[in-house]
């Protein structure tokens, strides 16, 4: 399968995503610059973490205007799987491909540590077959506090579009399990069609035994399985 | 009568004698920009004028050394055509004045030192020293510095994988922010800071030049007075986003054959980068200052030469390849501008709209800069430590003492700090902060690992700068061996008070000898480093703090070993034997004892044997955890071993290596490691071959830490209660 990893100036997890796909999954991955209009026929688009354009304004607020984003939107419009990780999630919300926004963590500081998330809601290319699982995945962000208006939250919950939720290691929800103040403990959501997923945790950072944790690998494996079924778009 | 008033010279940090030397060199009075150029390049920070005569005594060669001191960073051979490139540098003065930007630009500067050599940065570490936590300014400084390091490192996408934080009242008026960067490059793609090839064009790449940081190097070369607050405008402001672009642009440029030399514009900016490049090559350089990209209008040659605006590089391009250089850099949205040319005149020339405004022999600026053999005098000997004054536990129970010690911010968990740093980006972090005695990152594209440890015990250096400096190297080597890596080389960052005081200069010279002894004994040459003098406020100086950053190499990163006990039922052994002492210990500081007495003995031959034993044990897969006994002594180290995810307790019998229980439990002395194993006989066999004494401490079990001494219980507490004090001690002190 072919993974296009979008690279904005200031993206800093693009190499990590490429590396996981190539060296851990053994599939094809390549970076696509922010200023081009050619995704080069990918099966999956990854929007990686980092500080696009420095993120001195709202995170992702400038990246969404990049030329490549029109192509990402068109790819998503055709039902192609798009996954935004951390800054990628922020960019997808700014671009309107996902609802809501990511505000500053309530503790007002950057947080980098392992967190547990429950996989739930409807099936997506990233989570298929994993519903009900609790995964340990690192987070590393300053703005991961998901928010949306009441109506949007109700719709997300009602449609099963909350696909990752911060939980305690035993799977239970608690205020302590939520690292950043996110509404409804939301760590990741999908769009109405289910093909666009955004999440704050970094699965690419826990996909090989050397790093002490392979929970992230399960999400990538789900993507591969979805791609094998979906075929090329 | 001179052309410039005494007041002007004082502001430029130049003595009357130095000024006379400038006039003699030029045969005339210097112009205003020339005066500025001499001022920064002859500053202590850039010229090492007080330290050079001593630095020569450091061992800098070894079979692994590819590039020693003198370039932007040191380079060692990591095998298979890979190299590891690293350096540590201070940003003390700016961080005290403006903690966030001071610390952030410290990170930016050290990263540039490493990627200017062609290296992809893979790790950052920071050794921080703050004053008394109770000092009203300390919490503000801690928060600002940590925020600054995090905001820069997180954005630029290089993981901050380790470091240390220590509090001591001697740093009340002068905090230390020592940042270390580690990068990797192919051995055949290392770039040097050289201006070679007459006619080769000189390019300016990166951020535009503004008026920030003018005279930063001079500021870092004098002590603080009551008005240090007024120096805020001397502190630079960093932009990690531009740094990220600069890294990618430089590495892309370096992947093609376009450059003859490259250097970042650090302290003293454009002036030092160009003059040093010309000096290394014995060439000359002409800079057309009016072509420098400027952030604001009305800037003068003086300001352009001295600005320390961040995120700028100077490149000497191979003639004929200019168009490709411009194309590659422009793709990253960075300024790239031809501003000068390499000459063979041996002169540093600056022009301003066609007029020469600076014309100085390069050699006068760099190689022939003043060198001082400053007077040295040992301080009066320290009185012995009065052990009778130490509190004695009436019932022989040292549990409360241990609990209080674990909560001291210097010993408590540093999670509050490293949680704010992205320590996992680049997916190479094998041992995270807090997991092992050293950080371990993978050597990209190989199964091998790079282990890194930084630190220095300032109190020990205050008692004996020679032994304290040697201890810093020894401890870092043991840390790296604990995780399973062979110590390879060090970088140092020598933080001292005013070199104009003979006692300080003596301590500096002693510390150099201590470093040299330890580096020779442990085969870890010095490949890069930096000196920071004048860490002194209103006559009060810091402890000598020769910070050491040590890099080790391991064949398999996957076999890195952590410091905590992973399981119950493991045998726990103490390797190495020292006579633990309370002088200079964290325990002594905690009970308010004066800092005096003799620093503990240090047997470098025994440390070497310990390192070799550890490596043999790792090679045979005999140990499942390893943790060195350092600040806080044996009891603190044992408690730390129980603070892992397993939270398994320990029943242990402490060795009778000292007469008093408090010395056994809390006495310090380098050269001891706690290991846990499933094969104690195997460990003893290898240690005995290596000549390392072994004391069987006990076994991991249950949920309590129970320590006996000569059959009497001296410590008994649940792991959970000790852990709670340790986990909250740091935040409790700074929040």
Q: Please, could you describe this protein's structure?
A:
- The complex is a heterodimer of chains A (233) and B (735).
- Chain A has 233 residues and is of the alpha/beta class.
- Chain A has helices at 14-25, 68-77, 87-94, 150-158, 215-230; strands at residues 2-7, 28-33, 44-47, 82-85, 101-103, 111-119, 134-141, 145-147, 162-167, 186-190, 196-199.
- Chain A has a single domain, classed as Class I glutamine amidotransferase (GATase) domain (Rossmann fold, 3-Layer(aba) Sandwich).
- In chain A, the strands form two sheets. In chain A, strands 2-1-3-4-11-10-9-6-7 form a nine-stranded mixed beta sheet, with helices on both faces.
- In chain A, strand 10 and strand 11 (196-199) form a beta hairpin.
- Chain B is α+β, with helices and mostly antiparallel strands.
- In chain B, strand 2 and strand 3 (82-90) form a beta hairpin.
- In chain B, helix 15 (399-407) packs parallel to helix 25 (719-734) and helix 19 (502-522) runs parallel beside helix 21.
- Chain B is globular, with a radius of gyration of 26 Å.
- Chains A and B meet through helix 1 and strand 6 of A and helix 8 and helix 10 of B.
